[in-house]
Amino acid sequence: MIPIRAVSPAPTFGKSGLAAPPPLALYVHWPWCVKKCPYCDFNSHEPKGDLEAAWLSTLIADLEAALPSIWNRPVISIFIGGGTPSLMSGATADALLAAIRMRVPLAPDAEITLEANPGTAEADKFAAFRAAGVNRLSIGVQSFDDDKLRALGRIHDSAEARRAIDMALKNFERVNLDLMYALPQQTLTEAEHDIVTGIASGVSHLSAYHLTLEPNTPFHHTPPSLPDDDLAADMQEMVEEKLAAAGFEHYETSAFAKPGQRCLHNLNYWTFGDYLGIGPGAHSKLSNHERIWREARQRSPGAWLKGDFISTRADITDLPGEFMMNALRLIDGFPTRLFSERTGLPLAAIEKSALAARRDGLLEADDERIRPTLKGQRFLNTLLHPFLAD
């Protein structure tokens, strides 16, 4: 059986059952892009006019309106995502981070990440981001093959990608590359070239994503010719083998890091920590001693810029399912105690589903930890299904 005797009883403080709130992160959404890619389903838009100043002032108002929900809680990480945040000026990045520091207690060693695209990379701007306090850069390269970049609708080529990486490494000790595989008409050799090139670049973190055809995107409406499932599986195994041989730890479904270089912000998501999301379309998961809830900001930048911030707010009703949906993405799983700490529920709440998953060879468990097996990692949706409420 899944051991529960070694786990302390769930706390009974307040309606949520949490003895203390979990760590808190901050997500900041920049919605603007030069051009929207045909596979992208993120809340990104091509701006009509210069909206940078309006975005900044409204973002500060959004944060101030949210302060009662996070009052006096330290922020362990900031992630500025998009869109293409590297389009913003260094002065705006400096003003943004200064405004955040004035309003929330930022941990002294807080990880502060900004997303960048090679087509908007400038050496002076990277230096300005670093001076503003950004200490981690995430570059959306996707591929080093010019034909594949054109097929993906990217505005950069492979030479620009390499220049952006070089500029990033001169300014930041921590750099992530986003790469994709199972691209239109991609061969295993081409996918391997992208991974080997990414490894050789010298970055300390690499995210490798399987291209998926998301609803309401041009690729979904007019699908390109993609590798079949068997070839895509071969590509996934190649990615894992090449990165392991190069000293990268596979710690989440799509994330690989050199020792000590894991993304703290994303780890907080996967371990069911709290996060406040500000900006158009941003999502939050927050908790106090009484409740655990989610919020979504207005998706329309126009509505959000008018100060109409919150679109939806609702308590999380399936705490076991939501916790497991995040935590089982981690290759090493999670400490058994964490389930009660983050949900306020006893471990017995997932015992029946965990036993079924273990019988199917999808899950491993002992007194200290629950983790997906290799089969569970490969068939994550199948593993998660028993834990999700109808």
Task: Provide a brief overview of the structure.
With about 400 residues, the chain is of the alpha/beta class.
Write up this protein.
This protein has a domain at 24-268: Aldolase class I (TIM Barrel), CATH 3.20.20. The chain has 390 residues and is an alpha/beta fold. 41% of the residues are buried. Helix 1 runs parallel beside helix 2. Residues 1-14 have low confidence and may be disordered. It has a nine-stranded mixed beta sheet, with helices on both faces. A three-stranded antiparallel beta sheet has the order 10-11-12, with no helix packed on it. The chain contains 15 helices and 15 strands.
Topology (elements, then pairings):
Elements: E1 24-30, H1 52-70, E2 75-82, H2 90-103, E3 106-116, H3 123-132, E4 136-142, H4 146-151, H5 158-171, E5 174-181, H6 188-200, E6 205-210, H7 218-221, H8 229-245, E7 249-252, E8 255-257, H9 264-270, E9 274-278, E10 283-287, E11 292-297, H10 301-305, E12 310-315, H11 319-327, E13 334-335, H12 336-343, H13 351-359, E14 363-365, E15 369-372, H14 374-378, H15 380-384
Parallel strand pairs: 1-2, 1-9, 2-3, 3-4, 4-5, 5-6
Antiparallel strand pairs: 6-8, 7-8, 10-11, 11-12, 13-15, 14-15
Helix pairs in contact: 1-2, 2-3, 3-5, 6-8
